[in-house]
Amino acid sequence: MTATAETLTVRLPAAAMERLRRISQISRRPIDTLVADTLEASLPPLLETVPDEYRSDLAVLESLSSIELREQIFAQLDGKTVERYNFLLERNSSGTLRPEQEQELDALRRSADLLMYRKVYAALILKWRGEYIPLSAELQSTN
């Protein structure tokens, strides 16, 4: 099945156009196909690619200020929660988890997953806005 295509006029620097012509020659592919494929590969994922259970929580981030998004990037689970999560993971690994602990572990896992999704999506939104994204080392130094 062929996807429908739309036309878009884009002004490119001469150097970029020359590179496209050269790559088109080498790859024996039309320039418009090269541009479309490159653009498609470089576009970040949208919420539609995130599991349904997290979408509404992440959609809220789109309206946050840059300062609020940075706060999301640096957010962490509190120490007691991490400690409890690790304890339940150990019990789960050893097969000694009680049914109510399974439910608690599932809830904590969802919270941890949501936190990670929020951090990544907040960073992605900042990147789309053309803002600086903290490096991994900077994030770790806040621990």
Provide a descriptive summary of the structure in words.
This protein has 143 residues and is mainly α. The protein folds into two domains: 12-43, no CATH class; 47-140, no CATH class. Helix content is 66%, strand content 0%. The chain has seven helices and no strands. It has helices at 14-27, 31-42, 52-59, 66-74, 79-94, 99-128, 136-140. Helix 5 (79-94) crosses helix 6. The termini are far apart.
Termini gap: 50 Å
How many structural domains are formed by the residues?
A: 2
Overall geometric form: elongated
Helix content: 55-70%
Count of separate DSSP helical elements:
7
Query: Overall pLDDT, averaged?
Result: 90
Radius of gyration: 22 Å
Count of beta strands: 0
Structural classification: mainly alpha
Strand content: under 5%
Major sheet: none
Low-confidence stretches: none
Order of H and E elements:
HHHHHHH
Summarize the structure.
The protein contains seven helices and no strands. It is mostly helical and 143 residues long.
